[in-house]
Write a structure and sequence with these properties.
The structure holds two protein chains of two kinds. Chain A has two domains: 185 residues, Penicillin-binding protein 2a (Domain 2); 359 residues, DD-peptidase/beta-lactamase superfamily (Beta-lactamase, 3-Layer(aba) Sandwich). In chain A, 35% of the residues lie in helices and 21% in strands. Chain A is built from 21 helices and 24 strands. Chain A starts with a helix and ends in a 6-residue tail after the last helix. By secondary structure, chain B is mainly alpha-helical. About 2% of the residues of chain B have low confidence. The chains are: A alpha+beta, B mainly alpha. Chains A and B meet through α1 and α2 of A and α8, α15, α16 and α17 of B.
């Protein structure tokens, strides 16, 4: 072998090996580029302040308080005094080491979450000793009034699912999980900004990348003004303490929700800060379901309050007139079944509402379903069902509250299937006549139904947001939704409802000079004592408030629901309570079975 | 005057131009590596790129100085220069400045010189002078001893300065010796030793022994075609192995398996050797001793690594072979350097656009790791061009060396090419993670006056000799 060639070959071979290696590093393998990106840039997220929430009178319901998270990128950490840092953070060394060991090398990891201002102040002084660590200022939600927990909802750190569903979110972001926080998440959160900073090997910030050409500014979240009346809300929560149930109050002219309470409730501040997860599991495991928003999720039979709508449908369909009289035999017999009534004899239209005659409405229901206009019971039933839908019953109202329940009205086909086609009639489903059986409406739907009666024939979809800063609310919340009942038919029903309070089943709800119109209900249910129900609006002319109140397993509507609703109306319309003894009886009552 | 004109005509312009390209490109990259916007002028003397410009200008002056000297003067003064150099290497040990733990600098005011850089030049001259004697026989013991002394005296002194990297350069004179008459198998053996050294870190010690043994067996079969004999040898080996392993497996004794294999191999080799001696199978005289030597060598690597090397040296080697992924510690430099080069992609980020080197992620980015800046800002096209340029440059010098009439000039040319090759290959290999971090500069690129001048001297002395290539002296 020629030695000259061997030597040249060695040199050329070395060059080739280098070029092949460089090809692999520079062209074939992409991982180095990623490393370089993380080496030199630090993406600093600018978290916008979440929008604040106010009540209808401008009272602050939710605001933000600064909190401080200590984060670190393990790749940028230099050896540091572990014990010193642990002391500053009051965490164990093992915990710190584990957190860092589990973290992705190039991604920030939270070392200490939601530090107090005081701890942050101390830490900041020594932070220079811990390269790779930095503090990110975040905000926590604060609820000064501690009311309306279900309505306001809460925010929580995003989980994997949230991140998967929406790429906007990154680990550690907060997202509205229920209530307004959820349904108005996009308005409230604003938009995160991003600063790309150039850092050197010592993690010193050298300035912004390309003079901030690729930076985006954070957009502050929008402030929301709710339709809520904070005083009324606090008052109803006080009245509902130690009771299970729900009360919804609506301004009929606008569909604005004035108060919406579900009891038992909780302090929204429980979901904030270090104890939030412990509190959360406590609430989740509570058998009384404090997290469950009964106002929009619970389906209750309407009971006798349903007679108002039955009367309206019958009048509209012409199967009765305001002069119609039916005879009650202290009940109504279907042949196989006897519906009891607590009054007997001839019952006229006003009396039927005033004293809540079951027999009268069994007759009304019979007339509705056996109406000759329709070729079959099924058709008559479907028409009746359409009427109910036009009151917003048994369908989603389309409110701006998250997780609204749709309620329950069975279609005629259900009975066709159950009993056989043409083999059922009004007698078969007679319990519907008095708002029992296969019916289930949420308190919000019932309050909305009451508002539609108060408005004599229309409602506006109930909603919780009145105003958004620099933005408008959805126009559907200003459209009048008309019922299928002509306005003229409302007056006799409303007369009856006035008599209910003046001299009927709900004298406990009478307040001098307020012209409250109402209807009691007592709904049988499989869970124990009857639910106490009351719907009401006031004043009779130009109504300002419509209410539906449900107290679970409490007995007669007149005993609990009616006084509660009337106290609220009194509070809202006059801002004083002239019957402190009624208020005291309600506040002191504990109706939760132990 | 006519003589000067003669020089201008006869000088090898190709080498000169390549030299200028390398130096200029190096300067640009030093500028890029330490660039900051406050001192954006490349001639700012307060900055390293400004200084480098100063060194470059001085280097050009040296170039002309070299051309004023007659060719034969270099040969004449070889030993003298070598002697002075040895003296300086000793002096620096006593009077030198300690920088980064190495006592290898002379300081004159703000001016620092590293004699080790110039010692290569002196050694090359002395070696050329010695090897170019008339009727010189390289394989004579006396001559080998003198050659060894010439090479290892400066290398040893440099090791004493605690600058192992610079001392490592001297092993490359093996290429020169190979060209001048040392047989090929010594060169092969030399590479084999390096190969075994590298492989022994990758696999378990006893696996290494088995590999060596079977390579020997295969070599024997290939050379002699004595299949039957081979089978008998293998049976003997298996017998030894069984006897050795028997107590381990059956009696459950705690005997380490490596010595059993080592002893079995050695015993088999000795028997084979004795048998071959009687039957005069010549090939075995090579194979068996090489095998036994390899076993001992592997043992000693193991022993040296575990018992003699200090922990930080162990980690450096381990990191190189990917045995410990200590990216924050010893592997940090190499890892960052790979990231910087890798992030350049095909065409690079553009001049002055590198982020990794500019933000100090890569240590020694303007000296030993200057290649990172090239990789990051000029991409694969840049690195491939620089490597090709170096390869062509070295090949060009070899080509020039072969056309010399005087042996002195030829040997000196080979020395220059070899030294450049070692610097180039070790520096780039360490930058891209193929060799441990050995702090030696990339010729013409790395920041520093001593290194640039030494290489300029080295190359232009040869070009001066090349101008007088037809002379004999």
């Amino acid at each position: 072998m020629d030695k000259r060639i061997v030597i040249r070959a060695i040199i050329i071979l070395t060059g080739l090996i280098f070029i092949i290696n460089l090809y692999i590093i520079q062209v074939a393998d992409n991982s180095y580029k990623l490393s370089a990106e993380n080496n030199a840039f630090r993406h600093v997220t600018q978290y916008p302040a979440r929008g604040m929430i106010f009540d209808r009178n401008g009272r602050l319901l939710v605001f933000n308080e600064a909190s401080y998270d200590l984060k670190a990128v393990s790749d940028q950490i230099k050896p540091f005094d572990t014990i010193n840092l642990c002391k500053l953070l009051s965490i164990s060394k093992e915990q710190l080491i584990k957190t860092l060991a589990d973290a992705n090398r190039y991604q920030p990891v939270v070392i200490s979450k939601q530090m107090s201002k005081k701890r942050y102040a101390v830490l900041q002084e020594f932070l220079y000793k811990f390269p790779g660590f930095y503090v990110e200022t975040r905000t926590l939600r604060k609820y000064p009034e501690a009311t309306a927990a279900h309505l306001l909802g809460y925010v929580k750190e995003v989980n994997k699912n949230d991140i998967k569903k929406n790429r906007y979110y990154r680990q550690g972001d907060y997202i509205g999980k229920s209530g307004i926080e959820k349904s108005y998440e996009e308005k409230l959160r604003g938009r995160k900004g991003k600063n790309i900073l150039v850092v050197d090997v010592h993690n010193r910030i050298k300035g912004s990348y390309k003079e901030g050409k690729y930076d985006t500014a954070a957009v502050v979240g929008k402030n929301l003004t709710t339709t809520l009346d904070a005083d009324l809300q606090a008052y109803v929560e006080k009245l509902l303490q130690n009771k299970i149930g729900s009360v919804v109050a609506i301004e009929p002219k606008t569909g604005e929700i004035l108060a919406l309470a579900s009891s038992p409730t909780y302090d929204p501040n429980m979901f904030v800060g270090a104890k939030s997860s412990r509190n959360y599991s406590k609430l989740v495991n509570d058998p009384l379901l404090p997290l469950f928003n009964r106002a929009i999720k619970s389906k209750y039979p309407p009971g006798s309050t349903f007679k108002t709508v039955s009367a309206l449908i019958a009048l509209q369909e012409g199967v009765i007139t305001p002069q119609t009289v039916f005879v009650s035999n202290f009940g109504y017999s279907t042949g196989s079944h006897f519906v009891k009534d607590h009054i007997g004899g001839a019952v006229n239209f006003i009396m039927s509402i005033q004293y809540s005659s079951n027999a009268y409405y069994c007759h009304v229901f019979k007339n509705i379903l056996s109406d000759k206009k329709f070729s079959s019971v099924s058709d008559a039933y479907e028409n009746w069902k359409e009427h109910l839908h036009s009151f917003g019953l048994g369908k989603k109202l389309g409110t701006d509250l998250a997780y609204e329940e749709k309620g329950l009205i069975y279609p005629a086909s259900y009975f066709d299937k159950y009993y056989g086609k043409g083999r059922w009639n009004h007698n078969t489903v007679i319990s519907l006549a008095i708002g029992q059986g296969e019916l289930g409406f949420t308190p919000l739907q019932m309050a909305n139904m009451t508002a539609a009666i108060a408005n004599r024939g229309y409602y506006i979809i109930p909603h919780i947001i009145k105003n958004i800063t620099d933005d408008s609310i959805d126009p559907i919340y200003s459209i009048k939704k008309y019922t299928k009942i002509e306005p003229k038919y409302f007056d006799p029903v409303i007369e009856g409802m006035e008599m209910v309070v003046k001299a009927g089943t709900a004298r406990s709800a009478f307040v001098e000079g307020l012209q409250i119109c109402g209807k009691t209900g007592t709904a049988q249910n499989p869970h124990g004592k009857d639910h106490s129900i009351f719907i009401a609006f006031a004043p009779k002319d130009n109504p300002k408030i419509a209410i539906a109140a449900y107290i679970e397993n409490a007995g007669y509507g007149s005993t609990w629901a009616a006084p509660i609703a009337s106290l609220m109306i009194e509070k809202y319309l006059t801002d004083t309570i002239k019957r402190p003894w009624v208020e005291k009886r309600i506040v002191d009552a504990n109706l939760i079975k132990k | 005057m006519s003589k000067n004109k003669n020089i201008l005509v006869r000088i090898d312009w190709i080498t000169v131009i390549m030299y200028l390209i390398l130096v200029f490109f190096g300067w640009l990259n030093i500028y890029a590596a330490v660039y900051n916007e406050e001192h954006s002028s490349i001639m700012d003397l307060g900055q390293r790129y400004g200084s480098q410009m100063k060194w470059i200008i001085i280097a050009f002056a040296l170039m002309f100085l070299v051309f004023l000297v007659e060719s034969h003067i270099f040969a004449l003064l070889s030993y003298f220069i070598y002697g002075i150099m040895i003296f300086l290497l000793i002096a620096v040990l006593i009077f030198g400045e300690e920088v980064n733990g190495a006592r290898s600098w002379f300081e004159f005011g703000s001016f620092k010189v590293q004699p080790a850089e110039f010692a290569k030049f002196a050694t090359a001259l002395a070696l050329s002078k010695f090897l170019s004697q008339e009727n010189f026989k390289i394989m004579k013991l006396n001559n080998l001893i003198i050659i060894g002394t010439l090479i290892f005296l400066p290398a040893g002194l440099i090791v004493l300065q605690n600058d192992t990297g610079s001392a490592l350069v001297y092993i490359i004179f093996i290429l020169v010796l190979y060209r001048e008459g040392i047989p090929g198998y010594i060169l092969l053996l030399f590479f084999l030793l390096i190969l075994i050294f590298v492989i022994s870190f990758f696999i378990e010690f006893y696996a290494m022994l088995l590999v060596l043994f079977f390579i020997s067996v295969i070599a024997f079969v290939l050379f002699t075609r004595q299949y039957k004999l081979t089978l008998i040898g293998l049976s003997i080996f298996t017998g030894f192995l069984t006897v050795g392993i028997f107590p381990v497996l059956i009696l459950n004794m705690n005997i380490p398996i490596a010595p059993v294999i080592a002893i079995s191999i050695t015993a088999t080799a000795i028997i084979a050797l004795l048998y071959s001696l009687r039957k005069r199978i010549m090939i075995m005289f090579y194979i068996a001793p090489i095998l036994i030597a390899s076993v001992i060598y592997t043992f000693s690597i193991d022993y040296i690594f575990n018992n003699i090397l200090e922990p930080h040296q162990q980690t450096r080697i381990n990191v190189l072979f990917g045995i410990e992924k200590d990216l924050k510690g010893a592997g940090y430099n190499v890892h960052q350097s790979q990231i910087a080069i890798g992030s350049g992609g095909i065409t690079g980020k553009g001049f002055l656009q590198g982020t990794q080197t500019k933000l100090d992620f890569v240590p020694e980015q303007d000296t030993d790791f200057i290649f990172c800046t090239i990789g990051e800002e000029w991409g694969f096209l840049g690195t491939a061009s620089v490597i090709s340029l170096f390869v062509i440059f070295i090949l060009r010098i070899l080509f020039l060396a072969e056309r010399q009439r005087s042996a002195f000039s030829r040997i000196y040319g080979y020395s220059v090419a070899s030294i450049l090759f070692l610097h180039f290959s070790v520096n780039i290999a360490m930058t891209i993670g193929l060799a441990p971090v050995i702090g030696i500069p990339l010729p013409f690129f790395s920041y520093g006056g001593s290194s640039l001048w030494a290489f300029t001297f080295l190359v232009f002395t040869f070009l001066r000799l090349d101008v007088g290539r037809d002379e004999t002296f």
